[in-house]
Amino acid sequence: MHDVKFSLANKQVAGLSNGQTNKPLIIALHGWLDNACSFVPLAKYLNDYHLIALDFAGHGLSSHRSPDAHYHQIDFVHDLHELVVNQGFESFILLGHSMGGIVGSMYASCFPERVSHYITIESFGPLTKSAQSSPIQMRESIESRLKLQAREAKHPQSFDAVVKARAKAGDLSLEAAELLVNRNIYELDGELRFRTDRRLRTLSSLRVTDEQAEHFMRNITSPTLAIMGTKGYEMMREKIKQRLSWIPNLTHKSSEGGHHVHMDNPETIAEIMLHYLEQHPASR
Questions:
Q1: In what residue span(s) does the AB hydrolase-1 domain sit (predicted)?
Q2: Has residue 221 been placed in a domain?
């Protein structure tokens, strides 16, 4: 995997590519506070595909949003489509983990003609809240932003401490955590700094409702594979039970592992993906 960069109108989106440009394209989207290295363990099993793993804005080596902006999922969908249009990617496999799976579900719904297959790991459509919760959700979001503005940024004290904290918080192995942290930390004047934009930790201003989520997912027409870890987030397993009927062309698989099952058990996940893609050729 080597570094790549894509210039959009107002930012640069970075990523990693395996360079197999003459093979079918997979665009991979990582989870919240992760980065493109999330897909490095999986990459060595996907040599029959052109894999591009992106850093979302504010993550990894991608640009941060402007100082007066914030982070909304709709903007990640926008960034992806701007990149796809700029690069002339007509049809591709869309792979997402966690937040990347949520963004992927919205993209596959809004631009179904671009997505030949949609593969989601430890994620199954948008997170939701009731319409009645909207006022308090917005209030808490604004308050969280103002609190963040008033605080000085905290810097990491040691690389090892950050790796251990990331492994604990994400329930992933130290090796996987180190991969992610390596891309999210840099040194400035002899001191460590986080690359990740700290505004990503503020609360979302709004969430879609269950009704909106259902309409997003029912509009996904591509063959869809959902992979859940046996020790992943219980919320994700419950979501897929509730929403199984929302995607007409769905295959559901489980694999031993936690929320970052694609990092801690990459060979098995690759086997599931490759078998699925072989058995479900694109309809167009």
A1: 24-266
A2: yes
Whole-number Å distance between alpha carbons of 147 and 150: 5
Q: Global pTM?
A: 0.94
Q: Residue 98: exposed, middle, or buried by beta-carbon count in 10 A (0-12, 13-18, 19+)?
A: buried
Structure-block tokens of residue 95: 């792979």
192 phi/psi in degrees, rounded to 5: -80, 145
- Does any domain span residue 198? no
Determine the straight-line distance between the first and last CA of the chain, rounded to whole angstroms: 29
The structural domain count of the chain equals 1
Task: Report pLDDT digits (tens) over 233-266.
Answer: 888 888 888 898 999 899 999 999 999 999 999 9
How many of the other CB atoms lie within 10 Å of CB of 7?
11
The two structure tokens encoding residue 111: 């631009």
State which residues form the domain around 227. 2-132+209-279
Which residues lie closer than 8 Å to 7 by C-beta, 6 or more apart?
86
The CATH code of the domain that includes 85 is 3.40.50.1820
245: in domain: yes
Q: Does any domain span residue 168? A: no
